[in-house]
Amino acid sequence: MKENVIQTKSFEFAVRIVRVYQYLISKHKEYELSKQLLRSGTSIGANIEEAIGGQSKKDFFAKLTISYKEARETHYWIRLLNRTDYLSLDESNSLLNDLDEILKIIGSIQKTIRNQS
User: Fold this and answer.
1) Model confidence pLDDT, tens digit, residues 2-29
2) CA dist., res. 72 & res. 59, Å (int)
3) CB contact at 8 A, 70 and 44
4) Could you please report the per-residue DSSP string of 24-85?
5) Which helix (H) or strand (E) holds 86?
6) How much of the chain exceeds pLDDT 70, in percent?
7) What's this model's pTM, rounded to 2 decimal places?
8) Burial class of 16 by CB neighbour count within 10 A (0 to 12, 13 to 18, 19+)
């Protein structure tokens, strides 16, 4: 079976997000922003999984769109956590680089689907 790149990358990103969440609550005692990051950052992969199991192309596209929106939200929380000194520039840039790659892949899949319609 061929590897699904977006499925793998979004899952690995979710693992990183869980670890960042654990770090933020243990080291900084930060519970509000980190919870937002946890929800949106893990939702990306969860919605991709739902898209893969979609009933139709329309369902697949809808779940993929939700995943893209969750990735954009995650982008916001990472930048905010950096600007408020909860994440270092290196930490946030590393996460943002992975996230930008995920956004590009999702965007490319969406474009391909639109062009097929």
Assistant:
1) 789 999 999 999 999 999 999 999 999 9
2) 20
3) yes
4) HHHHS---HHHHHHHHHHHHHHHHHHHHHT-SSHHHHHHHHHHHHHHHHHHHHHHHHHHHTT
5) none
6) 98
7) 0.94
8) middle
Encode pLDDT of 83-104 as tens digits.
999 999 999 999 999 999 999 9
- What count of residues does the chain have? 117
> CB pairs under 8 A, 24+ apart, for 9-12?
9/98, 9/101, 9/102, 9/105, 10/44, 10/45, 10/48, 10/67, 10/102, 11/45, 12/98
Please write the tens of the pLDDT for every residue from 67-88.
999 999 999 999 999 999 999 9
Q: Which domains does the chain have, with CATH numbers?
A: 5-116 (1.20.1440.60)
pLDDT at 116: 87
